[in-house]
Sequence to fold (381 residues):
Amino acid sequence: MEIYLVQPGDTVDSIAWEQGVGVDTILYNNQIPFPYRLAVGQALLLSKGPSSPLLPDISAGGYAYPFISPYVLEQTLPYLSDLYVFSYGFTAEGHLIAPLWDDSPMIAAALRYRTAPILTLTPFGPDGQFNNNLISQIVNHLPAQEQLISELLSILPEKGFRGVDIDFEYILPQDRVAFAAFVGNVRQAVNTLGYPVSVALAPKIADGQKGLLYEGKDFALLGEAADAALLMTYEWGYTYGPPMAVAPLNKVRQVVEYAVTRIPPEKLSLGIPNYGYDWTLPFVRGESKARTIGNVEAVQIAISHDVRIQFDPVAASPYFRYEEGGLEHEVWFEDVRSLQGKFSLVSEFGLRGVGYWQIMQLFRANWLLLSDTFHITKRPG
Fold:
């Protein structure tokens, strides 16, 4: 695979001719719709020849809700080691709460592709937000914890799950040790079925980092407690924050550099966002709210407003501005250049693999580039 940046005057036909690749391949790889318009500065993934047979092995996971499009799921599963089904909740007494939508079809589809379906456990309250009081109740109350583990051991083989992912956020600082012990207890039980337990980690860069997102997660303890861990290296640019890259490479690198000093790199997966944001300017803290968009959609916005896509060399992320209805907008998203930078970190630090939040929208160029860079491990059937 090669990356080509669209220049003024380029068309799909002219690029195909000059680069010696098929028009249909360019359209397919990059999900270019009729009438096949391009944006100046757009990064295209071109298939120039067969992949090397000697690629490093990694694990690739992706989170998805049960209402994911069957087409998107079928297009994505060939590139996944693990499919994280989002999500199962629980009560203070330790009773599991299943998703509102039937997850059986996505579990069955994953198994057909030798992708391991993983039960994602989340502490959501009635408002649908992470509830740290619920976390405190489960990690500090052994009978409720034992009930939850018992129900996990029952549902995993019943539904066909092949592991558990613990995605708890905003853990109270005083629950730091108890949470790690809880992860270890779940792992010890689930391992008896032959399945792994992973944990999602906030993007810390130091042991004593302040903030509710960080203080309750002890990287060293959790690295020992879990079989694997996902670094949630995204959301620097977020819905209610100022315009910036969702996963700036310089910030992501800082997290990885710290994490590998506390957790063996072969246990760590790098979190990758499969989305971008569109902010209306000027940004006003407490009032502004960015719109979540897909990476393919972002390019189409640039095309429809006839603006050039820029690339920030420090964040290693694409962005652009456009005007609509008298208002200026700023867009940050991911493309194959920003993804290539993140994949390089995986190789440089010898990480276990990558994990995507989330795979609800198809970004085919990402999967093609990933499979051209690494060999994706699959679980035995």
Remarks:
- The mean pLDDT is 97.
- Residues 316 and 375 are 24 Å apart (CA to CA).
- Residues 142-159 form the longest helix (18 residues).
